[in-house]
Structures are given as structure tokens and as C-alpha cells.
UniProtKB/TrEMBL annotation:
Residues 156-238 form the Expansin-like CBD domain. Its main location: secreted. Keywords: Secreted, Signal. SMART domains: DPBB_1 (SM00837). Belongs to the expansin family. The keyword Secreted applies. It comes from the Eukaryota. PROSITE patterns: EXPANSIN_CBD (PS50843), EXPANSIN_EG45 (PS50842). InterPro entries: Expan_Lol_pI, Expansin/allergen_DPBB_dom, Expansin_CBD, Expansin_CBD_sf, LolPI, RlpA-like_DPBB, RlpA-like_sf. This is Expansin-like A2. It comes from Hibiscus sabdariffa.
């Protein structure tokens, strides 16, 4: 047990970003959504199905070498005449290499910050002052799903990404095994949201994920996900959803109401 806890500890990223705290920044928008659907996370055109097309590219402290992919943020602009107090909820799908703004968002997300009828006025501003914080992603009608990447080849190479990941967590490890077998192979993060292994168990496959939760982490076990004849390009339902919330210790941290 001690060994297991130690392992979990090592797998957890250092909690430095404190992205659940309220941050002050500026936000810019992409005039087209194309950069986001070819984003660093590797969601491709599926990105447009995440968060209703309200997407964000984030600086590396939020992108976290891919661990931030799929995270949700609430952003509101600070001009109460133009913008609503609820702001816009966005899903992270890309890395923003320019550090002038913490986030660059899709124009749809940008306009969603506006008060009713003011969306064009907000758009005209271009860059606006905002505050933002991480929030739980809510996929009420979708389970956590596993997409088998096009680069996969049954039975030798398996690359996957997770879609529709609820809650406010980061996946820090993924293992795969044949359904019913205790012989787990670990997967490695290849890039963005994509994990892979060339030690692919045969048969139908189960997964276990280590996610950040509370102040440490926990295993989430999806007992039957891929059929034996899994195919590149297909999306498979994990049969579960994540609702955990990670609480990195950050202080001071305003994470309350705004
Ligand atoms: C955005 O997220 C917040 C916090 O989870 C939630 O209260 C709010 O209803 C969401 N807004 C929309 C438009 O979904
Ligand atoms: C465990 O799984 C790996 C990868 O599928 C395989 O190479 C290995 O032979 C398996 N070991 C046992 C004891 O079944
Ligand atoms: C989610 O998984 C459960 C099984 O755990 C299943 O009953 C349900 O239909 C799935 N929901 C969706 C929206 O696919």
C-alpha cells in the first residue's frame, strides 16, 4: 500500500498553476476556428464538438505539456457595460505560444462573454481585460470516451485520446490490460491529449486512469472499453464519467464567487 501511495504521489504533477484560482489577464480571439481544430492537443475536428465550439488555446502553464487538454475555464471580461457576469465557458484544445494573453479563444467563445446584443461591440475591442478560473467540465449526456487514433494498428500499436472528460482533474497515468486480466501495460503521453503503447494486450481491453482528485489522486477503472477488433478512427464509450475536482494547495487563492 505504501508503495502504491508513493507511486501515486510521483505521478501527480507539481501543483503550481493553481488554475482553479481567479487569474487576471487579457484575452484575444481567433478570427477563424481553424487553428483550434488543428490544435496542439490533437483533437482535430472533434475539438468543435467539445464545449459547443467555445474553445481556447492556453499558455504553457495551463497547457501543462498536454495535461491541461480538455480542461474547462470560465472567463469574463471586466467591462460590466459590455459583458455579463457569468462570462463564457471554454474548453482547452491548443497551446498558445504567445504569452501576451493567457488565453486566446474562439470568436464564438469571445462573443459569449457579452451582454445580450453586445457581442459585436465586444468583438470590435479585440483584446479585452478578463478574469478567469478553471471550472469542472460538464458532459451531462456523454460518458468519458476513448478515441482510437488513426496511427494505431491492431494488434501492435495503440494510440488513444480521451474525449468528454468531465470534472476538474488531470489524467496523470493510463494503463491498459485485456478485460479480466491483471497484466497491465502502461501507456505514455505521446503529445497533447494522445497516449500510446506498443505493448498492446490482446483481446478486448480495459483501462485504468490515475486522475488528480482532491489533494492527491485516485484510480478510475473502466472495466470494458475496446472490443477485440478495435479500429483506428473509432470512438468507444468508457461507460463512466469523471466528476472529481482536484484541489491543488494554493494560497492565497480566490476560488469562491465572483
Ligand atoms: C459556466 O460554468 C459555470 C461554473 O461551472 C456554471 O455555473 C455556468 O452555468 C456555466 N455557463 C454556461 C453558459 O454553461
Ligand atoms: C503481459 O502483457 C504484455 C503486453 O501485452 C505481454 O508482452 C506479456 O507477455 C504479458 N505477460 C504475461 C505474464 O502474461
Ligand atoms: C454511460 O455509461 C452507462 C454505463 O455505465 C450507460 O448505461 C449509459 O447509457 C452511458 N451514457 C451514454 C450517454 O452513453
Amino acid at each position: 500500500m505504501a508503495h502504491f501511495l508513493c507511486l501515486l504521489f510521483l505521478l501527480l504533477p507539481s501543483a503550481t498553476a493553481c488554475d482553479r484560482c481567479v487569474h487576471q489577464s487579457k484575452v484575444d480571439y481567433f478570427s477563424s476556428d481553424a487553428p483550434l481544430s488543428s490544435g496542439a492537443c490533437g483533437y482535430g475536428s472533434l475539438a468543435l464538438s467539445l464545449g459547443g465550439g467555445r474553445l481556447a488555446a492556453a499558455v504553457s502553464s495551463l497547457y501543462k505539456q498536454g495535461a491541461g487538454c480538455g480542461a474547462c475555464f470560465q472567463i469574463r471580461c471586466k467591462d460590466p457595460k459590455l459583458c455579463s457576469s457569468t462570462g463564457s465557458n471554454v474548453t482547452l484544445t491548443d497551446l498558445n505560444p504567445n504569452t501576451q494573453t493567457d488565453l486566446v479563444i474562439s470568436s464564438k467563445a469571445f462573443m459569449a462573454m457579452a451582454n445580450q446584443g453586445m457581442d459585436q461591440d465586444v468583438l470590435k475591442l479585440g483584446i479585452v481585460d478578463v478574469e478567469y478560473k478553471r471550472i469542472p467540465c460538464q458532459y451531462t449526456n456523454q460518458n468519458l470516451s476513448v478515441r482510437v487514433e488513426d496511427s494505431s494498428s491492431n494488434p501492435n500499436y495503440l494510440a488513444i485520446k480521451l474525449l468528454y472528460q468531465g470534472g476538474q482533474t488531470e489524467v496523470t497515468a493510463i494503463d491498459v490490460a485485456q478485460v479480466g486480466s491483471p497484466n497491465w501495460s502502461f501507456m505514455s503521453r505521446n503529445y497533447g491529449a494522445v497516449w500510446d503503447t506498443s505493448r498492446v494486450p490482446t483481446g478486448a481491453l480495459q483501462f485504468r486512469f490515475v486522475v488528480t482528485s482532491g489533494l492527491d489522486g485516485k484510480w478510475i477503472w473502466a472495466k470494458s472499453v475496446l472490443p477485440a477488433e478495435w479500429k483506428p478512427g473509432q470512438i468507444y464509450d468508457s461507460g463512466l464519467q469523471i466528476t472529481d475536482i482536484a484541489q491543488e494547495s494554493c494560497s492565497p487563492c480566490e476560488d469562491g464567487t465572483w
